Amino acid sequence: MNKRLVGLAAVGSAALVVIGLVVIGPLGASAQDGQTLSFQEQNTNVTYVPVQSLSGAGPTAPPGDYVVFEDPLVNAKGQSIGYNEGECFVTDVAKGILECPGVTFVFTGDHGFPKGTIQGAGIFVAPASGTGPANPDPFLYGTGAFAGAQGTLTGTQLSTAVNAWTLSLGR
Fold first, then answer.
1. What is d(CA 127, CA 19) in angstroms, rounded to the nearest whole number?
2. Which run of H or of E encompasses 143?
């Protein structure tokens, strides 16, 4: 697998999502309208699947290859607040563009974060190295403290090992 694909595999967990951000706004037991939650994703459990090599065509990197992941989420102090899981399809290898039809963020209710899940989907740009652009996408739905919430989930690759996430809530 070439260096770009290793980078894509490492950051495909878009999923994206990591130590050092500050949480803006009040944190309580439930998600609130106007609340902004910031957290990070540690890309530690990502698998890159080269589709053409599965069929014997060789280890190329065409659109259609994908990554699957289940990565820990941490707050600004590095404390575990949950995990995310999902899959992203490579649509442009040169630009590091991933389309992620299903990414679930599971928050355990620990360390001041609300308990519940957010289901996201969208585009995530993950360069082979370095920082990527902010990737804002509306989230699809939530459960628990996030039931009925609307908002935006914005992911930014900080490095191939870390994604920063900001969840902006509205109802």
1. 20
2. strand 135-144
Write out pLDDT tens, residues 101-142: 999 999 999 999 999 999 999 999 988 888 999 999 988 889
What is the rounded distance in angstroms from the CA atom of residue 27 to the CA atom of residue 39? 12
Rounded to 5°, angle at Cα 97 from 148 and 75: 50
In whole angstroms, give the CA distance from residue 39 to residue 153: 11
Interatomic CA distance for residues 66 and 48, integer angstroms: 6
Collapsing DSSP states into helix, strand and coil, what is residue 29? coil
Kindly state the DSSP code that residue 47 receives in the 8-state scheme: E
Q: How far apart, in whole angstroms, are the C-alpha atoms of residue 19 and residue 76? A: 5
Return the CATH class of domain 3-170. Answer: mainly beta
Read off φ and ψ for residue 123, nearest 5 degrees.
-100, 140
What distance in Å separates the CA atoms of residue 50 and residue 1, rounded to the nearest whole number?
A: 9
- Beta strands 80-92 and 97-108 are antiparallel
Greatest pairwise CA separation for the chain in angstroms: 53
